[in-house]
Amino acid sequence: MKLSKKPLSIVLIVALVTTMIFSQLAFAVGEGPLYKGNETINNSRITTYEEMVELLKDYDEKSDLINLQVFGQTVKGRDLYLVKFGDMNPNKPTVLFLTQQHGNEVLSTEAALNVIRNLSVNSKNSKDLASKINVLFIPKYNADGGEADVNFPLENYYGGGLATRYNANRIDLNRDHTARTQPETRALHSEVLSKYKIDYMIDFHHQGTTSAVDDEYVSGSILYPTNEGVKPEVVQASRKLGAIVYNAVESKGFGKLGKYIGGSANTIARNCVAHDYDIPTLLFEMRGMIDNEWMDAVLGQKSNGYLIQQSVVTMQAVMNALATGEIETVDDSFWETLTEQGSKVTE
Ligand SMILES: [Zn+2]
Questions:
Q1: Per-residue pLDDT at 67 exceeds 60
Q2: What's residue 34's pLDDT?
C-alpha cells in the first residue's frame, strides 16, 4: 500500500490507537472479562465426569504407557481415578498433578486430559519421556462437587449451580488433609500418597477473577509450602518446582503470575503433603472459576482457552524438567522479587 504523505486525520489516529489498545487487550493478556452479570457462564464445553471416565479408559486401552487405577470412591460412589504414565519404577522421578480438589475449579482438569491424550500417543516423545520419568494424574478429584451432585442447594450460585467448591457433604476437601474425615481425602492419603514414591506434586486450583499485581489482573498465582514444620530442603525443592512453572508460563505471553498469599496450616494439601511425606509441592491458582455464589469469582468463558493452555504448559514444562534434571539446577531467585498479589475490583 502506498503511504499518503498527508498527515493522518485525528479521527484516523484515534481509530488506530483504539484498535491497537483493544488488540493489545485481546492478545496480550488472555484474561477475558469478568462475569458481572452479563458474560456467558456455560459448562457445555467442559468434560463431564462420565465423559472423562470414557476418555481415560480409551487412553488406557490404546497406550502401553498409561495405566488406570481406581483408588477410591467419592461420597456419592463415583470412582476416583489415578492415571499412571510410565512404568512406576521408583528410581525414576515421579510427579503428581492433582486437579479440581474444588469442584468449581475445572480448567486444569481439561488441561490434564489434554496432556494425558498427548502422552497416550505412542510417539517417540512419549516413549522417551516414559523411559525417564513417571507421571501421576488425579483429574477431577472432587468429582461430586464438579458434577454439582451434592447434598445441599446451589440455587444462589450465579451460573445456576454448575459445580461447587465442596464435596457432597459440604466439606472443603482442601481443609481436610489432617483430619481426613472424607472418603476422598482418606483414599488420596492411604492409596496414593502413602503407596507411591512421589518426588513432586502440583495442586491446581482457581482463585477468582480480581487478583492483580501492579494493577493488572494476573493469569494465576503460585506458592510453595509455608508450614514451619516442612523441612528446608523440601521447601527448597518446591521453590525450584515453582521456578520451572514460572519460567514456562511467563515466557508464553499470556501468562502473568503473582505470589499467592496463603496460610501455613497443614489442613491444606500444599502444606500437608510437604510436611507429612516430604514431597515438594506447588500450589497453582488459575484465574476465575466456573461458578460461585460470589459474583466476582466467576469468569466468563472467553478466557478458558488461555487458562487451559496455562496448565498444559505447566505440566509439560515440569515433565521435561524432570526428564532433563533441570528441576534440580534451575535458578529460583525469582521468588525474591515475585510480587504478592492484591485485588483489583473495577466498576
Ligand atoms: Zn481451590
A1: yes
A2: 59
CB under 5 Å of ion ligand 1: residues: 102, 105, 205
> Would you place residue 37 in the very low, low, confident or very high pLDDT band (cuts 50, 70, 90)?
low
Quote the CA–CA distance of 201 and 249 in Å, as a whole number: 17
How far away, in angstroms, is 205 Cα from ligand 1 center?
Answer: 4
Average pLDDT over residues 217-232: 95
End-to-end alpha carbon distance in the chain:
42
Bridge partners of 135, per DSSP, are 85, 95
SS (H, E, C) 243-281: HHHHHHHHCCCCCCEEECCCCCCCCCHHHHHHHHHCCCE
Owner of C-alpha cell 493452555: 309
Fold that domain 34-343 belongs to in CATH: Aminopeptidase (3.40.630)
Residue 102 Cα to ligand 1 midpoint, Å, equals: 5
On the question of pLDDT at 300 being above 90, the answer is: no
Residues 6+ apart with CB under 8 A from 121: 63
Nearest Cα residue to 159 out of 305, 294, 302, 306: 294
The domain ranges of the chain are 34-343
| Per-residue model confidence as pLDDT tens digits over 100-122 | 999 999 999 999 999 999 999 98
Rounded to the nearest whole angstrom, what is the distance from the C-alpha of residue 319 to the centroid of ligand 1?
Answer: 23
- Residue 257 near residue 218, CB atoms below 8 Å: yes
Of 60-74, 259-273, 281-295, least confident by mean pLDDT is: 281-295
Residue 114: strand, helix, or coil: helix
What spacing in Å lies between the alpha carbon of 167 and ligand 1's midpoint?
A: 12
pLDDT at 21 over 70: no
Q: How far is the CA of 166 from the centre of ligand 1 (A)?
A: 10
Give the CA angle between residues 31, 37, 38 to the nearest 5°.
Answer: 70
- On average, the pLDDT of the chain sits at 88
Supply 252's cell numbers.
Answer: 508464553
Q: Say how many Å lie between the CA of residue 21 and the centre of ligand 1.
A: 33
Do 152 and 170 meet the contact criterion of CB atoms below 8 Å apart?
yes
pLDDT of residue 29: 37
